[in-house]
TrEMBL record:
The keyword Aminoacyl-tRNA synthetase applies. Gene3D superfamilies: Anticodon-binding domain, Bira Bifunctional Protein, Domain 2. Residues 1-384 form the Aminoacyl-transfer RNA synthetases class-II family profile domain. The gene is hisS. This is Histidine--tRNA ligase. It catalyses: tRNA(His) + L-histidine + ATP = L-histidyl-tRNA(His) + AMP + diphosphate + H(+). Belongs to the class-II aminoacyl-tRNA synthetase family. Keywords: Aminoacyl-tRNA synthetase, ATP-binding, Cytoplasm, Ligase, Nucleotide-binding, Protein biosynthesis. Pfam families: HGTP_anticodon, tRNA-synt_His.
């Protein structure tokens, strides 16, 4: 029988030790900031009941859910009529009760409802786990990928929005980014714009067109609005709003003038101003905070603030985003629980750090020192030192006796181990071990205690 060539499913990938070290650097940095702001980690199962996920992502999203066949003889309880009629939707319901999670948001909503009596509200949680989508794999789009989310539910305070800005600012600064923008908008402002031109029913059409301003320019937006049933008078009315310029304060002043007849629009302006006031009191480190009324992501579920984060150092789509939603848990029967959340695009952040060469060398080093022995006596002599090093939380290895020193040195170089300790008969007699800096090639004779103190610094 011919051997099967090993492979992974399309749209998935392996991560090498070096890649995992870099990924963990990103995740550990972000998790540390989440914890600092009072967010607690939860995890939910890789699989959910299919009924939990279905109908939450629209028809297109439902098609991308990976279903799991029932255990055992899954055809035993299959819908015979649906199978005969080749009705896959109806047949699936009878042979699949579970599915892989499509995102972290719906499982989070399910978690909140299921555990509402144990949770302390406002509930601030973060989650870093893989999700699965039966999408067509292409560059930068995978069928299995990690999401890195933080949400707070049970609090309408705009301090939460301000803290999300501070979380983005701190985490991305710690990762080494020096030039990035956090864009903010508010769904209520977009509703106000639609209201002042009496196009409440066409808010989605309007915002989808405005959202493309960066890509197709103002003339392209006008063309698209006219095709979607807007009049030239409508466009003349909203042109100064779409082409807002100036500082955030100047933009807000212009918006207030343009939306003076819209109560909801003015409410949106007030909310944005409140967030800006909170942020200025907190003094962000690096981010450029920018009011951008063309930002319209997630309009189907965001009801207040909308965020998007972009790096200005490399050409890349957004590396984070989120917003305020008013009824996340309503889908599971718990009404009126407002929330807000953000997500970090970990895969894109990885690509940005790689391109800018921002991963610290320490992110790739797993072992700090390798003990190299000429023979079994050296191995026996080196074991107490090995344990002492590990006892001081120094990552250390001892290369098993029997290999030539050249091979042991190659091992250290290939693993990017910065230091080696050589133990031969001279070293054992004198008690002074050869300590080598693998980068500079510099060697010195040191006692075991000196080596410990040198590596502990």
């Amino acid at each position: 029988m011919a051997s099967i060539k090993p492979s992974v499913p399309k749209g998935t990938r392996d991560f090498s030790p070096a890649e995992m070290a870099k990924r963990n650097f990103i995740f550990d940095t972000i998790k540390g900031v989440f914890r600092k702001y009072g967010y607690q980690q939860i995890e939910t199962p890789s699989m959910e009941n299919l009924s939990t996920l279905t109908g939450k992502y629209g028809d297109e999203g439902d098609k991308l859910i990976f279903k799991i066949l029932n255990s055992g003889d899954f055809l035993a309880k299959a819908d015979e009529q649906a199978l005969a009629a080749r009705n896959s939707n109806q047949a699936t319901a009878s042979i699949s009760e579970k599915a892989l999670r499509y995102d972290l948001t719906v499982p989070f909503a399910r978690y909140v409802v299921q555990h509402q009596n144990e949770i302390t509200f406002p509930f601030k949680r973060f989650q870093v786990q893989p999700v699965w989508r039966a999408d067509r794999p292409q560059k930068g789009r995978y069928r299995e990928f990690y999401q890195c989310d933080a949400d707070v539910v049970g609090s309408a305070s705009l301090l939460n929005e301000a803290e999300f800005i501070m979380i983005y600012d701190e985490a991305l600064s710690l990762l080494g980014l020096k030039d990035f923008s956090i864009k903010i908008n508010n769904r209520k402002i977009l509703s106000g714009i639609a209201q002042v031109i009496d196009k409440n029913d066409s808010i989605i059409d309007m915002t989808v067109a405005i959202d493309k301003l960066d890509k197709i320019g103002f003339d392209g937006v006008v063309k698209e609005l006219l095709e979607r049933g807007f009049t030239q008078a409508d466009i003349d009315h909203i042109k100064p709003i779409i082409l807002l310029e100036g500082t955030n304060d100047e933009k807000l002043a212009s918006l207030r003038a343009a939306l003076k007849n819209s109560e909801i629009g003015l409410k949106g302006c007030e909310e944005i101003e409140t967030v800006f006031n909170y942020v200025s009191a907190c003094k962000p480190l690096t981010a450029k905070l920018e009011l951008d009324i063309t930002l319209a992501r997630g309009l189907n579920y965001y009801t207040g603030a909308i965020f998007e984060v972009k790096t200005n150092e490399v050409a890349m789509g957004s590396i984070g985003g989120g917003g305020r939603y008013d009824d996340l848990t309503g889908m599971f029967g718990l009404k009126g629980l407002t929330g807000a959340g953000i997500s970090f695009g970990a895969d894109r952040i990885y690509d940005v750090l790689e391109e800018l060469n921002l991963f610290p060398q320490s992110a790739e080093q797993s072992t700090q020192v390798l003990i190299c022995c000429f023979d079994e006596q050296g191995e026996k002599y080196g074991l107490p030192l090995l344990q002492n090093l590990r006892g001081q939380n120094i990552n250390a290895e001892l290369y098993p006796a029997g290999a030539k020193i050249k091979k042991q040195m190659e091992y250290a170089n290939n693993k990017q181990i910065p230091y080696t300790v050589l133990i031969g008969s001279d070293e054992m007699q004198s008690g002074l071990l050869t300590f080598k800096n693998m980068e500079s090639g510099e060697q010195e004779k040191l006692s075991a205690d000196d080596i410990l103190s040198k590596l502990s610094k």
